[in-house]
Amino acid sequence: MAGVARAAVRGEASALALGVRALSLDQPDGRRALDAIDIAVRPGERVAIIGPSGAGKTSLLRILAVAQRQSEGELQVLGEDPWALGASGRRALRRRVGLIHQAPPLPPRQRVVTAVLAGRLGAWSLLRSLVSLAYPLDVAGARAALARLDLSDRVFDRCDRLSGGQAQRVGIARVIYQRPEVILADEPVSSLDPALANHAVGVLVSEAIERDITLVASLHAVDLALAHFPRIIGLRDGKVLFDLPTERIEDAMLEALYSQEGFAPTQHGRALELSAQRLRGMAQ
Amino acid sequence: MKTLGIATLLVIAGLVWASAAYLGFHPGEIFDRGSRAGMLVYAAEFFPPDLSAEHLGAIGKGALETLAISAVATLLAALLGMLVALPAAGRFGLAARLGARFVLNALRSIPELVFAALMVIAAGLGPFAGTLALALHTTGVLGRLFADALENTPREPVEALLQAGSPRVAAFFYGTLPTVLPQCVAYSLYRWEINIRMAAVLGFVGAGGLGQMLHVSLSLFHQAQASSVILGMLALVILVDQTSAMLRRALASVQQ
Amino acid sequence: MSAVSLPAARDPAALPRLGLAAIALLLLWPGLRITEFNPAVLFESGNAATMGRFLSQFVPPAVAPDFLLLVGRATLETLAIATLGTALAFVIAFPLSLVTSQSLSLSAIGPSRDAGWRRALRYPFRLLLIVLRAIPELVWALLFVRAVGLGPTAGVLALAITYGGMLGKVYAEIYESGSNRPARALMEGGAGRLQAYLYGLLPAALPELVSYTIYRWECAVRASVIMGFVGAGGLGQQLELSMRMLNGAEACTILITFLLLVLLADGVSALFRRLLA
To answer: Partners for A (CB, 8 Å, 3+ pairs)?
Structure first.
């Protein structure tokens, strides 16, 4: 019975962009970071993950990005089990998934243009990579990606001359330049002011819509999540509390999610009432 | 503790005296009238140095050869050193790290002169032997320095690139090298200053350059020519010291 | 949020980088030619065969008792050369450092009649120190081998001279890095310069002086072996003989002994520095 069920799952899973089943992750200190998570994301979907700090959002995204291995459970990325592949197969798979880090790992002395172009290293030959290191070969492409985040004037600056928010935007530009089939964003706008953050999330969403690719973003600001994404997953203490279309989100759910924190965080950082309706209307 | 200090000093003094005795070192004997006169005559023959145009031309060529030996050897050692530094920094696992570190230590410990004698066997007399010898020893030195620098470099940029599907080599060049390059270049330039001195003397065993000229002059008892070769060495050392310092200053302000 | 598209700007670093690359290539080519860089030479039959034979003899290393005795005596000789050489270097460096250091300058206290020529006198000694240091010790070794013959004496003298220069410079720097106020106070009170040194400068500087000197001894052990290679006695001279005879087994034993000796010197140096700290 279990075998048939698993086969059926696999049958429908091959149509998924991302899928996890009974996924768990144990930390080295024994804590369970993720507990029996079930999530299915179809190609082209746009999903936001919200939840209090320590809920496991980053861990989940890293597992989906094949950056970390789960302790238990099944994982499917673009129709494959990444850990059943060989190393080069995994590399090819990672090439098709773009992970935006919360703290962009940019080498300080590197220039923005090189940092952005590094997004396509998986597709370039070694010779091209080496030449581009000294003489960037696709300045126009890098500039186009940066322009969407209003950073095209910083294309030749050093990364350590950027502010935190600018560095974060360069990290986003790099993944846009990579043109993956799945974008996973881990708190991509945490260092941006409200207007810029709204704009940046909008850029990610329109990129996903234009290219018909999958977008999964974890956001600390609930108002941004509710405003830009048609599907919200609430994560708390490693468990999925709810997984619903946005219009079905209710105040009580948000309260249950953030009950310890007492308020739903927004980009403004001020405590706000947990009114889903109000929050939906706020970021318009 | 003071008595321990004094006792140690006495031990040291005793060892010095024992050394002199073991070697049969009699300052009186060395500097007695006869040999003192001999040495003074020998020393006097060095002045004035031979500054004829022909000899200066030969010194110029020898200096160029020595300069080339030191530069090519340092460059080769930097490349090889970086290659070995990667496993030595643990990028390929513990076994590789131990092996690479052992190789680097071995290369570092064997003096350049010994390598030069070995390379003369392997490659014949001439500057190529000197270049290889210097390169081998310097690979050990630079490789160790590079490995330590690599271990102190944050891994996040590389991991993010691997995350995006980059091949490992490209990830190294884009993620690690930008951070570690200035330091490695500075080490290499500093090592060049040391290598120019070594390149000058490697010629003693037949490895080309000014050293070989010096050996020949001294063997033929042409003291005047030997002394101008020594002056040439001095000039070369000063030149390389200044150039290296200038390059290091310039590099401190270059962006990537 | 401007929507103006910028004109296609060139990479500002492209031209300088191309220039640097061109210069590097322009320098590299003659460099490779002058050094007769040709890896193929290594595989030429004659060279490769000789080298192969030599290296294959490395294992097993020579362990015949009389050879080991010879190596043991040569090791002691090397240690003796290093120790005596460093001691003599100290004897040279000590007065030179006093003369060249500014910390004991009487003219710093107040104007004196001969301040001018005393200051001028410092420079020749400084120059002497620089010359002693700049000529590689191997050159000195070669010269002394010619002057006093093969053997340890040449090594001792070469070490004494070069390390004398090195120690002299570092000693002077140590004096100048510390505070010279105790010394000056003593001199103002009428003490002679030597007394001011012994009571005012030396106590504070001593640990550093000793530490550096012992470190130099450790370097001297290595240098003695290298100098021995050109005939200045000890382990180095034995190594040169074995290699000239293309006796790989003996060379291997001597090399291993050398590596152990260096480790030993490192340990002894650390020990003495701790004892004297």
So the answer is: B, C
